Amino acid sequence: MTAGQAAAPTPVVLTARTIRLEPLALGHVPGLAAATLGDEAVWRWLPAFPADEPELLALVAGALAEASAGTRYPFAIIDVTSGQPVGSSSYLDIDPANRRIEIGWTWLASAVWRTSVNTEAKLALLGHAFDTLGFERVAFKTHHNNLRSQQAIARLGAVREGTLRHHMLHRDGTWRDSVYYSILSAEWPAVQARLRARLQARLEARPGSPAVDTVAP
Question: pTM for the whole thing?
Answer without folding.
Answer: 0.91
